[in-house]
Design goal:
Layout: H1 15-31, E1 37-45, H2 49-52, E2 54-61, E3 67-74, E4 82-87, E5 94-98, E6 106-113, E7 119-125, E8 132-138, E9 143-148, E10 154-155, E11 158-159, E12 173-175, E13 181-186, E14 204-209, E15 215-220, E16 245-246, E17 252-258, E18 267-274, E19 281-287, E20 290-296, E21 302-308, E22 316-321, E23 329-332, E24 341-347, E25 353-359, E26 365-370, E27 377-378, E28 385-393, E29 399-405, E30 416-422, E31 433-439, E32 444-447, E33 456-462, E34 467-475, E35 494-495, E36 510-516, E37 518-519, E38 526-535, E39 539-550, E40 559-562, E41 565-567, E42 570-576, E43 584-588, E44 597-598, E45 604-608, E46 612-622, E47 625-638, H3 651-662, H4 681-692
Parallel strand pairs: 32-37, 32-39, 41-47
Antiparallel strand pairs: 1-30, 1-39, 2-3, 3-4, 4-5, 6-7, 7-8, 8-9, 10-11, 12-13, 13-14, 14-15, 16-17, 17-18, 18-19, 20-21, 21-22, 22-23, 24-25, 25-26, 26-27, 28-29, 29-30, 31-33, 33-36, 34-35, 34-38, 38-39, 40-42, 42-45, 43-44, 43-46, 46-47
Length: 694
C-alpha cells in the first residue's frame, strides 16, 4: 500500500527531507519484499483409471470429509456401471450396486451420502418402464436394504399410479445431513395446463424417513398456485442446474421451480418449505437466467446460488440468507461476456466457504470462495485438471473433492476422484514444497505487450525425489488467471529438476521458472503467485505467495570500461550499469552513428585497432521508455611501440621493451645514458649491461 502524504504546512519538514524519507521508506519496503506463503494445499488422486480399470462420472463427499460416493463406467464406454463408496484415505472401497448391461434393475444417477458417511441412499429402475425403488446402504456393515417401492402420488389433486419415477440427477435427490430424511423429485403423473397452454408433467417432492421408508408428499404441482407471488409459468422444477437442498435435520427443504420451456423468458423461484408450517414461501425470484443451486448450510440459515445472463443484479455466485432477507453478497462474478461463469455451488455445512465450478471456454476449473469476503481462489487451475462434473466440500470448508486428475494422462487424467486439502502455510504434505525464493525480485512490472519482455524468476525448493515438475501461474484478488480476460499475462510452464527448459541445475532440489509477468491492465497492486509441484505418484502440492505489481521505471543508461587505455590492438570489456526497466541495449563502440551490437551476451568486449581516442554510445530501451549516454574519449589507444602512451618512444618505452625481451623487472634507468640528447647504440648497450649486472 502506498503511504499517504500529509499536506505541506509550516510544521512540515523541508521538502528535501520529505523526499529523502520517502526514498528511505521505499527502500525499506523493497528490502522487505520477501515472498511469504499465504495459502498452501495438497492434491491426491484417489482413483487411478489405468490400474482401477474405470473412470468416474458422478461424485459426492460426506460433510465430515471421510467418505466419497461415486458412479463409475468402463474406460471406453459412457454408461454408468457401478455405484461405489470409499474412505478418503483411499481404503475400503465397496461396490454398492453393479448394473447389468442388458437387464434390470438398472442404476439411476441418483444417490446421496450422509454427513458422517455412514449411509448412502440410491435409486434403481426395476422394470423396462419407469418403475423404480429406493435403497439404503450401510457403509459400516456393507449391507444394502430396500427403503421404498411405492409412494402415495397425486398431481393437480388427481390420484395416479403409486410407482416411483425418480427424476435423474444428483441435485434432485437430497439426503439430510443426519441421514434420517430423503427428499426426491418424482415426475410420474397426469398432465396439467398452465397459462402458456403447454401441458407440463406433474411433479411431487417427497420426504422419506430413513431407514423406516415412510413417504409423504411435501410439495407438488398443484401447490404452486397457492404460493404468494408465484408466476403462472412456474409449472415444474427447473430443468437445468436447479437442485433440492436440505438442512442437517431435514426440517428445511429448498425447491427451485420454473424455467424449462414454460415461457420464452421463464421465471425461476427458489421456494422454502419448513416442516410443521403450511405451504411454501418464495425466497428468491430470478428471470431469464442461467441458474444453478441452491446449496444449503447445515443449520438451514444460509444458501449459495449461482446465476448469470439474466436481467437482474447481482450476477455470479452469491451467498444469502435462506429466508430471503438481507442483501446477497457476491462471492465470484466471473465474466459472462467471455463465457466464464460460476456454476454448481457447494456450500460447506458450516457456511464458511463455497466450492464451485468455473466454466471457461478452455474448460472448467474448480474455485473456492470464502463467504465473508470477495476473494475466490482457484484450486484446480493450471496443474490439476477439473472435469465438467460435480464439486463437493467438507463441513469446515478445508477439503474439496471433485472429478479431475493430477497427472497429465490423456486417457485417465481428468476423470478421477481428486481430494484437495487446505494445509495451511506451515506444511504441504504431497510432493512437499519446502521453500519459495524469488530472484531477482518479487515485483511484477506492468507490461502493455502481447508477449512478455520482463519476467520474474521463481525458484521453488522441493523435498523428495518423486517431483515430476512444477507449474506456475498468477491470479488477482478475484481468482482470475486467464489471459485476455483478467488483464493478467503469464506463460504457463511445466518444468522438471533436470537442468533443462529453464531449470538451472539438475538434481539440486530446486525447480526454476522464469515465465511470470503482468501487463498494463492489471488493476491490483498485489497479485498472488502459485507454484505447484506435481509428483509422479499422483499427488501435487502448492504454495501461494503475494507478489507486488508496479509501474515501469524509466531506464537511465550508464556503463563501465576496463581497461580505459592501452596499446593497439586493445580489447576492452564493457559492463552495462544502466538502471530502470529495459530489455534492449544497443552499443555503438566507436560512436560513428551505427550500432555495433544489440543485446550482446556478457562479457561484452570490443577490440580497438585504430590509434587515438574513441567515444562510446549506449542506448537502452524498455517498458519505461528509452535513454542513451555517450562518453567522449573514454577509450585511448596508442601505437604498440609507445608502451606508456606518451605519444612517442621514450626511455620508459625502451626500458619496458628490454625488460620484456630479457624476462627482467628492472626499472628506474634513464634510457639516454650518455646524455647526448637521443637514444643511441651506447645507451642501449649500457642499459643492457646495467640490467644484466655486467
Amino acid at each position: 500500500m502506498k503511504p499517504k502524504l500529509k499536506p505541506f504546512t509550516k510544521h512540515s519538514p523541508p521538502m528535501a527531507v520529505t523526499l529523502l524519507l520517502l526514498v528511505l521508506h521505499a527502500a525499506i519496503l523493497r528490502a522487505q519484499e520477501i515472498p511469504t506463503v499465504v495459502n498452501s494445499g495438497a492434491f491426491r488422486t484417489l482413483t487411478i483409471g489405468v490400474s482401477d480399470g474405470y473412470l468416474v462420472s458422478h461424485l459426492l463427499m460426506s460433510a465430515d470429509g471421510s467418505h466419497v460416493a461415486y458412479t463409475t463406467h468402463p474406460s471406453l464406454q459412457n454408461f454408468i456401471n457401478d455405484l461405489r463408496v470409499r474412505n478418503t484415505d483411499g481404503s475400503n472401497e465397496q461396490v454398492i450396486f453393479t448394473n447389468d448391461p442388458i437387464a434390470v434393475p438398472r442404476l439411476f444417477e441418483n444417490f446421496d451420502i450422509s454427513d458422517d458417511g455412514s449411509v448412502v441412499v440410491y435409486a434403481v429402475n426395476t422394470e423396462l418402464g419407469f418403475r423404480g425403488e429406493l435403497w439404503v446402504f450401510d457403509t459400516s456393515t456393507g449391507v444394502a436394504s430396500l427403503l421404498l417401492r411405492d409412494v402415495p402420488h397425486s398431481s393437480f389433486g388427481i390420484e395416479s399410479q403409486k410407482q416411483i419415477e425418480v427424476q435423474p440427477g444428483l441435485g434432485l435427490f437430497a439426503l439430510s445431513g443426519d441421514g434420517t430424511s430423503l427428499y426426491f423429485l418424482n415426475r410420474f403423473g397426469p398432465q396439467g395446463s398452465n397459462s402458456d397452454g403447454i401441458p407440463p408433467s406433474g411433479f411431487t417432492v417427497y420426504r422419506v424417513s430413513v431407514p423406516g421408508g415412510q413417504a409423504e408428499p411435501v410439495f407438488e404441482t398443484a401447490d404452486l398456485a397457492s404460493v404468494p407471488g408465484i408466476s403462472p409459468s412456474a409449472v415444474e422444477l427447473i430443468a437445468a442446474g436447479g437442485q433440492i437442498a436440505s438442512d442437517f435435520t431435514g426440517s428445511v427443504v429448498m425447491i427451485p421451480v420454473g424455467g424449462a420451456s414454460a415461457s420464452a423468458n421463464p421465471p425461476v423461484h427458489v421456494l422454502r418449505v419448513v416442516s410443521g408450517t403450511a405451504g411454501a414461501e418464495i425466497v428468491l425470484n430470478l428471470a431469464g437466467s442461467r441458474f444453478t443451486g441452491p446449496s444449503l448450510s447445515g443449520d438451514g440459515t444460509m444458501m449459495a446460488v449461482a446465476r448469470f445472463g439474466g436481467d437482474l443484479e447481482p450476477e455470479g455466485l452469491f451467498i444469502m440468507n435462506a429466508d430471503g432477507t438481507g442483501t446477497p453478497l457476491v462471492l465470484d462474478r466471473g465474466i459472462f461476456e467471455f463465457g466464464r461463469w460460476p456454476t454448481n455451488p457447494a456450500l460447506s455445512k458450516s457456511g464458511n466457504a463455497v466450492a464451485h465450478r468455473m466454466s471457461t471456454p478452455g474448460g472448467p476449473s474448480v474455485r473456492w470462495a470464502p463467504t465473508n469476503t470477495v476473494a475466490p481462489r482457484p484450486i484446480s487451475q493450471n496443474g490439476v485438471f477439473a472435469a465438467d462434473r460435480e464439486v463437493t466440500i467438507s463441513q469446515d470448508g478445508s477439503r474439496v473433492a471433485f472429478i479431475g486428475g493430477v497427472a497429465d494422462d490423456v486417457n485417465f487424467g481428468a476423470t478421477q476422484v481428486v481430494i484437495f486439502d487446505w494445509t495451511g502455510p506451515a506444511k504441504v504434505n504431497a510432493s512437499n514444497i519446502s521453500s519459495v525464493t524469488v530472484s531477482p525480485s518479487v515485483e511484477l512490472v506492468r507490461q502493455d505487450l502481447i508477449s512478455p519482455v520482463i519476467r520474474t524468476t521463481f525458484s521453488f525448493g522441493v523435498n523428495g525425489l518423486d517431483a515430476a515438475g512444477i507449474r506456475t501461474f498468477v491470479y488477482n484478488s478475484r481468482g482470475i488467471s486467464e489471459p485476455g480476460v483478467s488483464g493478467l499475462g503469464f506463460v504457463f510452464s511445466l518444468l522438471r529438476d533436470d537442468g533443462q527448459g529453464g531449470d538451472q541445475t539438475a538434481g539440486d532440489g530446486q525447480i526454476d521458472d522464469t515465465d511470470i509477468w503482468a501487463n498494463a491492465s492489471v488493476v491490483d497492486d498485489v497479485l498472488t503467485g502459485r507454484g505447484m509441484v506435481i509428483g509422479n505418484n499422483g499427488t501435487a502440492g502448492f504454495v501461494d505467495f503475494n507478489l507486488s505489481v508496479r509501474d515501469p521505471i524509466a531506464p537511465v543508461a550508464s556503463f563501465l570500461v576496463d581497461p580505459a587505455s592501452g596499446a593497439a590492438p586493445l580489447t576492452v570489456t564493457f559492463t552495462n550499469t544502466s538502471t530502470g526497466d529495459f530489455h534492449i541495449s544497443r552499443w555503438d563502440f566507436n560512436n560513428d552513428g551505427n550500432f555495433d551490437a544489440t543485446n550482446p551476451v556478457a562479457p561484452i568486449t570490443f577490440q580497438y585497432t585504430e590509434v587515438g581516442q574513441h567515444s562510446v554510445r549506449l542506448q537502452v530501451e524498455g517498458l519505461g521508455g528509452q535513454d542513451e549516454v555517450t562518453r567522449s574519449a573514454v577509450i585511448t589507444v596508442h601505437r604498440s611501440e609507445d608502451i606508456d602512451g606518451s605519444g612517442g618512444i621514450d626511455a620508459v618505452d625502451v626500458q619496458t621493451t628490454i625488460n620484456a625481451a630479457l624476462g627482467l623487472d628492472v626499472g628506474g634507468l634513464d634510457a639516454d645514458v650518455d646524455d647526448n640528447g637521443d637514444v643511441d647504440a651506447v645507451d642501449v648497450q649500457r642499459v643492457i649491461n646495467a640490467a644484466l649486472g655486467l
